[in-house]
Predict the 3D structure of the following.
Amino acid sequence: MQLRDNGLRFSPITVALHWVVAFSLLAIFGLQLLIDNAASAASQLEFGRLQNLLGLILFLVSSYRFWARITSYHPLPVGTPNPIEVIISRSVAVSLALAMVLLPIAVWASRCAAGQVVELPGGWWIPSLLPVNESLRHVVDVLFNIGASAFLAGLALHIFGAVKNHFLLKNNTLKRMLGKHVEL
Ligand code: HEM
């Protein structure tokens, strides 16, 4: 099995982890809706634990992905896109991978600084290594809000690019990220 991306194609690991991240993120947003509308504090806590677990998975998977992305070749683009678009789309993709490492750290740091335990299902938890400190929490929250806004803008651009390639340019960019073998 091809373990790393090369100039011709994404590895199956890249393709699988890309969608693991996309669906984990979607599940985290879905759980937030459930938390906001939960009938009891107990179910709110249970959804929160599940959300923390997904955040931890996102962090671990994205740490590997970010390392793999910057240490291997990015496959050549499908078709003949404008080089500026290629540079922008690749920079956005790398920034998205990095954001998925930094944003979960910011959530954990904010909870530690607020004196909250980051609980996981099954009675597990993530250790709090930072001091309880209101000003630290405030700084981390401001950084998180800036980072999260930039991330959402980048994600919107990324999805717009995928939709444009698929429906407007009618090329195999999206199908390649869904595992289709594309000859370049
Ligand atoms: C509906 C959601 C998404 C769609 C349709 C989508 C689509 C795509 C496509 C088509 C590519 C291949 C681009 C190319 O050929 O160069 C790609 C690559 C990439 N995408 Fe997404 N994407 C989505 C969500 C995400 C999310 C949530 C992240 C990260 C937070 C992400 C990060 C990346 C990265 C880093 C790459 C480069 C390849 C890699 O290292 O995995 N994408 N995406």
Observations:
- Residues 14, 18, 21-22, 25, 65, 69, 77, 93, 96-97, 100, 155, 158-159, 162, 173-174, 176-177 surround protoporphyrin IX containing FE (CB under 6 Å).
- The CA atoms of residues 40 and 136 lie 31 Å apart.
- The chain has five helices and two strands.
